[in-house]
Every structure is written in structure tokens, then in C-alpha cells.
Amino acid sequence: MSEKQTLNNPVSPILPMVEALLFVAPGPVTSTQLAQALEVPVEMVEEALQALQQTYQQGRGLSLQWHSGRVQLTTAPHTAEAVERFLGLEATARLSRAALETLAIIAYRQPITRPAIDAIRGVNSDGVLKSLLNKGLVEEVGRAEAPGRPILYGTTSEFLQHFGLSSLKDLPPYDQQEEETSKQENLILKD
Length: 191
What we know:
Blueprint: H1 3-8, H2 14-24, H3 31-38, H4 42-56, E1 62-67, E2 70-75, H5 80-87, H6 97-109, E3 112-113, H7 114-121, H8 126-134, E4 138-143, E5 151-155, H9 157-162, H10 176-190
Antiparallel strand pairs: 1-2, 3-5, 4-5
Helix pairs in contact: 2-4, 3-4, 6-8
InterPro entries: ScpB_csome_segregation (IPR005234), WH-like_DNA-bd_sf (IPR036388), WH_DNA-bd_sf (IPR036390)
Function: Participates in chromosomal partition during cell division. May act via the formation of a condensin-like complex containing Smc and ScpA that pull DNA away from mid-cell into both cell halves.
Family: Belongs to the ScpB family.
């Protein structure tokens, strides 16, 4: 069978192998890593991943999660309650309003510095940022090319898992007009 025939075959022999590798992978992996392990072209792996994604989107208990060019097999968001109960995670700490606010800023503006987060929130975010770093929901992704070279923050794959997102593309659209209206209202209130 030619490579082209294998690519077009919906029940390709590579599909269960890609799924198995994702299952045993200790964390997110790239298509290239999967292709190297299976000794097949990256295009075949990417097609298999798309086929798996379509299968999982039909109400299955698993999901593919994409972050920074990597993919990971996770439980589907709709199974979270049962999985938490089974694993005894029901008492997981909920995020405070400040943490949610900071996460939203980072998710939509990443990479972003702490001073920029503080400017948007209007308060110091040191404590909240440390908490989010400890929970693994955000991470340091580099340094800004600015005086003092402040740290840049971005979200992690744990962030996506926590909110049941497959990728950052699944975030609701950012409504900048609403933010501008809110800023204008705040200015009026301050006068």
C-alpha cells in the first residue's frame, strides 16, 4: 500500500498507534516526536491527530488538547465531575476572583509582564501571580526587551485542562469595545 493510500484511509493502522503513544506520553508532545517514534511522515501523524480529534468531539470521554505546537490526550471536559469524584479531587480549591481576573488578562494578552497585568487590574498582582505559578496555571515564557528585562508570563497546558479547553483558540472572543466602555465609565467615576 502506498503512503498516499494510507493517508486517505480513515481506519489507518497508524491511528491506534498515535492514540497509544499519546496515552503513554508523560506530557504534551509534538507531531514530529510522534512521527519519529512511528517512523512515518509528520503529515500522516497530523492527519491521524485530526481524525482522533473528530472522533473525540463526538461525545467521547477523551479529548485532544493543543498548546504551543504540542498535543496531549486528556479527559473530556464534560467528564470532569465524575473524574474528580473518582480520584478524590472534589475538594480542589476554587480560584478567587483576583486569580480569575489575572488568568483572563494573561490568557488574552500573553506574553505579558507583571507590570502590564498590574496596570490593567489597577492593583499589585504579585501574590495572585505567585499562586497561579504554584498551581501550574501560568508560567514564565521569557523576558521582555525593556529596561530591567521583566519576566513575560503565559498560560500552560494545565490552564487549558482546568478550563476544559482544547487550545487557546477555544477562548471566547475578546470584546475590546466592552473594555473601552468600562475604562470610560471608570474615568467618569473618578472625576
